[in-house]
Amino acid sequence: MASGGGDRWVPRRVLLRGTGAVAVAVFAPLTGGGMRQAVAVPRGSAEQPRYLTRAELETLRAVVDRIVPEDHATPGGARSGCAEAIDGLLGAFREDPPLIFAGAPFSDRAGSPVNHFAEFLPLDSYEETAWRLRIEGSRDRPERTFNGPVTGFQTIYRDGLAALDEAAVGGRRFADLTAPEQDLLLATSRDPAVTALMDVAVPHTFEFQYGAPEYGGNADLAAWDYTGYPGDVQPRGWTREEVEEPDRHAGPVAPLPGVVPADELVAALALAHPDAVRGVLARSGGLLSGLRGEVGSAVAAAKRHGAVRGEEGGSTDGW
Amino acid sequence: MAGEAVIIGSGAAGSVVAWELARNGWSVTVLERGRHLREGLGERPSGELGTRYGSDEIKNVSRAMGFPDGLLEPYTTRTQAEAADGTARSARGALGQLGAAVGGTTLHYNAKTPRFWKQDFTQLSDHGPVEGAQVADWPIGYDDLEPYYDEVERRVGVQGDIDAMPSRTLEQSPRSAGFEMPPNPVPYVGSLLGEGARRASYTTYPQPAAVNSTGFDGRPACNSCGLCSGYGCPINARGDALVSWLNPAVGTGRVRVIDRAFVHRIDTTRKGHRARRVRYLDMSGREHAVSGDIVVVAGSPINTARLLLLSATGAHPDGLGNGSGQLGRNMMFHNLTLAVAVFGEDVHPLRSQSNALQLDDLVGPFTGPEVKALGVPYVKGAMVQVGGAMPLLESAELYAGLVGYGQAHKELMKAALTYTRIGGSAMWHEDLPQADNRVDLDPEVTDFLGIPSARITYSPHQHEKAAAMLLGPRMQAFHQLAPGAIASAFVPYPVISDGATYSAHLGGTARMGEDPATSVCDGSGRMHEVDNVYVADASTFPTFPGFNPTLTIMANALRIARGIAGGSRQGGS
């Protein structure tokens, strides 16, 4: 794990711009998601969480909104339902079938009259054993400690959320802090409980924000709208013309985002290949700190080997 | 004469063997540690099987349905240097594991089906030894495999365009016929990268793939949704071990498949010359045994080696059939070098059967002074798979690695680059066999049933590092030359990490050869030291050329099975 976490990867101006935007964010009504029907699956609500207490869920809502901040007209993690979806994962086994694998083969967003995703799949005993261990932890049960104790998601969230509330000084809880204060606390905390929380909460929030809405996040498909992502397209798929021809409906493209140096971004885009990302995910253990190390070392190596070129074939300085 | 067979593993190798033995009248038991995921197996035509797969990134990628669980069945890994320092392991978990399901990894493979080349079978004779590697000739040649390639392609249904294939490709992998189906539409981004390749004096052509471009086998044509590798095909447009081999095999009534069967031992006779039975545990830890006239091991290289090592006895003290000391050694992973072009327009690269084009100009071998300067006698690269892109959630994971979380991450997500602005290519390149790249049994870590885990010791050879540094810039060059490209990059994994890249392409650990002193199996797949145990999967491969291996795994398994059954070729059926 070469270059680990910490805030040095995020340019200062980005932090400032990001937090500033959130501080003045106006919660504009969402209008973009109307063309596709989002499906609500049974999940916990703010009033009746599935696993967490109401207070814990409130803290978690604040956390997921720092992971995916609300800005302008696009919702953050909280309004997209990520906190309730995480709570649904923590309490996955309070439903039957458990909320682990959505159904198949199609949602109703691309031509199927039935949304198969909406009904979750029954697990076999192997899958149940694996996901109970991952969520509940080993709990000192001999059949679960064959390789030593496993700390489950439930404990990681409960301890991490408590640590955040404890760290919010001045008689306040984490959710009472301003967004810049929350960002600062998350970025500077050296509490292992907070680190462990963010290691799993960041990937989980991204799953629910950007994955299929049947898992409880991506409310109103807003995340697929602000990313221009078509979502699951089966069984319709794409026509020959849509595959072969330039997209006549595509507008002009924006400049590459300036949130990271262009050469680092282009090097990272070389990793944007399913085969590569599977390796990254495997080696990272799906944890934020692992991802930072994996992508960081690959990008650094590409730069070291001069493996990034701009338009004129030269360096990427200045574009 | 038809007998009874026990096959361990139901993937690309095991399913083919089951089919061939069953049609010759054998009674077959297939033991599979994974789960049944296709409802109706053996009871319905392949076009009517149910599926648990969909275009669902959370299920397929984040939660890895159809894969072994990293907590319940961990592998452990370390580099060669760590092994030399006495480090028992440096990582543990779901480390590059293949799928575990009835039908194996082929349920969610990319289904690209290149053939190996003639030159791959005679590498030691042609180019001599490489220091630090155990390069070997194969005991068979391309000509031995060619009829099986033909037969496998006809059964799984391969699309391609023989007229577009370069002459060297056709010289090195001659074909007696064209393809079952024409290629899928070539994506727009593929046309741009193809033009970049042409400007670099390279040639791209539609990549042969076991993907329907027309109706075939009662299954529909691919509609270019773009979610292939790692995803079960939701519309059943892909030929694989299950739909093409195992389902019809079970349909004969002579094959039974036992899922969630965790095989941990092959028992042998007292002197160790014959296998007596195969023992496995079920989910509750209960012990079962199955006997047969022959045992066919097809667990894929890591698990085949693990099982044979677990089966040590007084007569086979270092693992079953390991008198050569080669069992578990020569573990090969294809190494990964990537390149990307960033375009100044929306090129919608995800609308495509994934990476639809192939480029063979970097296969090699390269032997010029620039190669010698890198410290190796030659460099063999690989075919390049051209035209990659990535869906949304995987992009979010990638950007988390780049910037963490927060507003910077969201800005990257809004920019939509990974499915609108890029065209990427992957080269999974040849890995030379090394004695010290090996699978053994972890001394402490076990699976959930208490059976020792496989431990993988692996580091790339200088050859792989040289290939990445020599060929990565050439990949990048044709990306930069693509019309409309504004930037490009390459990433050479073998020089980034001294560990395994974690490819789904695995070979070695029970290499076949003529000499029992240096190989585990003979050319027929039979173990030199155990008369009725065969290895049928990629464990048998003495070297691991840079082509997606599944077609060759199936062809070689069919060859081995036909040798067992003594049967003849069957055209259609």
Description:
Chain B: Belongs to the GMC oxidoreductase family. Chain B: One of its GO terms (molecular function) is flavin adenine dinucleotide binding. The complex is a heterodimer of chains A (319) and B (573). Chain A is mostly helical. Chain A has helices spanning 12-23, 54-67, 82-90, 125-136, 153-167, 179-188, 192-210, 222-226, 240-244, 262-270, 274-284, 288-304; one strand at residues 308-309. Chain A has a domain at 40-235. Chain A has twelve helices and one strand; from the N terminus they run H-H-H-H-H-H-H-H-H-H-H-H-E. The two termini of chain A are 30 Å apart. The model of chain A is unreliable at 1-40 and 312-319 (pLDDT under 50). The radius of gyration of chain B is 22 Å and the shape is globular. The relative contact order of chain B is 0.19. Classes of the chains: A mainly alpha (319), B alpha/beta (573). Strand 1 of chain A pairs antiparallel with strand 18 (485-492) of chain B, so a sheet runs across the interface.
Counted beta strands of chain B: 20
* Major sheet characteristics of chain B: 6 strands, antiparallel
CATH architecture of the domain at 1-44 and 97-159 and 222-333 and 504-573 in chain B: 3-Layer(bba) Sandwich
Total beta-strand segments of chain A: 1
**Fraction of residues in helix of chain A:** 40-55%
Mean pLDDT of chain B: 96
Measure the end-to-end span of chain B.
21 Å
Structural class of chain B: alpha/beta
Beta-strand percentage of chain B?
15-25%
| DSSP helical segment count of chain B | 16
* Radius of gyration of chain B from CA coordinates: 22 Å
Provide the CATH topology of the domain at 1-44 and 97-159 and 222-333 and 504-573 in chain B.
FAD/NAD(P)-binding domain
Shape of chain B: globular
Percentage of residues in strands of chain A:
under 5%
Oligomer: heterodimer
Look at the structure and give the mean pLDDT of chain A.
85
